């Protein structure tokens, strides 16, 4: 095909065109969206990325940046129509530099998150971004979606962990903002504009990341509570007492634990009886593991006496801490293993969550009594995965036919409570139109102006984040 010949003449990097090779890049992790592309490219240098962007601009081809393809909103999947080119960044994967004095690491965008963590560890430092997909997602994808994960309570989202970016703009030029500065007020913040832009304004090719001291004496506990009100009470007590040494506060319902017990390898219930809700808490940076254990025991003992906590197990070792984490981190895979899912990636003011949870569960139950709530999330930072799975015997088509109405019920309540319907996974195609409908007019106009100004040809990740 003439178009591919022209691409080959312009670009000398790896190119996939055979249907079998291309297929994995055309379907998302949840297997909801499948698109089409003339080819998949895997550039290894920033120059090659520039060449691809320029070639696309000259040939009316749209680019779809892709990292590890673990996103949950369909952002990395090409549209089903039109001329699309997938630009997979996984071969742009060098650790460029580590500056131990500045506590920064400069990386290519395609470095896998677990490799960033490992490189930080090897340098005696810590990179805190942590999520269950860390073995396959890339730092570029994390920044393009402003990923959150399980360490936000103490360290913030991907945005807070990034000091500088390098981006190939829609005209194929490089904007080099790879500064490792903690203060820099020199005009509009392009770094913050590109973070969470989901590949719609350019391709992130490099980043300067913040490093931290390695946390000491890590210890987790799984705590059983009666409801979200009790969970919030526990959060308040622990935060007031231990501040930043409480590094994780993750919620999971009984339904979530059962899903993981059914589908997770070697997973077992650490309690002898079942409870409605569990909180996975983690403490770090005590003087020793014993000191951390004594602090957890004391805090939970008091909470038990006050009727906040029903039961608790405290890890005896780092290995047991990891076993407890596997129960939390296995939820997404377990829910997918059980069939189709309706997901709500929401965040609320922490003070609104105790009232929101039962109200939203009840509002959905009234019109959809058979579907199963699968409720979990990063309670400590106010973000929740308010998900659903089909009830017994319900087929996929009938379950998915409920999606729009369930979304409306949940999201109307979220917005009324001052929350957001897109906390950490990005809008992609999944939340694009709903988010737009809830947006104030001024915000909608500003967003469109930005897209129009930076990408007037509309070649960057078409149809994602904003409908134009
Ligand atoms: P992709 O899926 O490839 O892409 C995501 C988006 O970013 C797309 O719009 C794509 O076009 C764009 N993009 C990718 N790379 C670039 C680039 N270099 N330049 C510009 N745009 C780019 N997310 C959380 O926030 N918290 C969690 O706890 C969490 N847990 C997860 C657990 C599992 C099991 C899975 C499968 C996913 C989870 N996620 C979570 C979703 C999360 O957004 C992704 O895992 C990750 O941040 C996306 O990285 P990726 O490299 O896979 O990006
Ligand atoms: C998590 O917190 C991820 O485990 C995935 O953000 C959430 O599967 C989901 O809905
Ligand atoms: Zn999450």
TrEMBL record:
<keyword id="KW-0274">FAD</keyword>
<dbReference type="InterPro" id="IPR016166">
    <property type="entry name" value="FAD-bd_PCMH"/>
</dbReference>
<dbReference type="GO" id="GO:0022904">
    <property type="term" value="P:respiratory electron transport chain"/>
</dbReference>
<dbReference type="InterPro" id="IPR006094">
    <property type="entry name" value="Oxid_FAD_bind_N"/>
</dbReference>
<dbReference type="InterPro" id="IPR016167">
    <property type="entry name" value="FAD-bd_PCMH_sub1"/>
</dbReference>
<dbReference type="InterPro" id="IPR016171">
    <property type="entry name" value="Vanillyl_alc_oxidase_C-sub2"/>
</dbReference>
<dbReference type="InterPro" id="IPR036318">
    <property type="entry name" value="FAD-bd_PCMH-like_sf"/>
</dbReference>
<dbReference type="Pfam" id="PF02913">
    <property type="entry name" value="FAD-oxidase_C"/>
</dbReference>
<dbReference type="GO" id="GO:0003824">
    <property type="term" value="F:catalytic activity"/>
</dbReference>
<dbReference type="GO" id="GO:0071949">
    <property type="term" value="F:FAD binding"/>
</dbReference>
<dbReference type="InterPro" id="IPR051264">
    <property type="entry name" value="FAD-oxidored/transferase_4"/>
</dbReference>
<dbReference type="InterPro" id="IPR016164">
    <property type="entry name" value="FAD-linked_Oxase-like_C"/>
</dbReference>
<feature type="domain" description="FAD-binding PCMH-type">
    <location>
        <begin position="33"/>
        <end position="214"/>
    </location>
</feature>
<dbReference type="Pfam" id="PF01565">
    <property type="entry name" value="FAD_binding_4"/>
</dbReference>
<comment type="similarity">
    <text>Belongs to the FAD-binding oxidoreductase/transferase type 4 family.</text>
</comment>
<dbReference type="InterPro" id="IPR016169">
    <property type="entry name" value="FAD-bd_PCMH_sub2"/>
</dbReference>
<protein>
    <submittedName>
        <fullName>FAD/FMN-containing dehydrogenase</fullName>
    </submittedName>
</protein>
<dbReference type="InterPro" id="IPR004113">
    <property type="entry name" value="FAD-bd_oxidored_4_C"/>
</dbReference>
<keyword id="KW-0285">Flavoprotein</keyword>
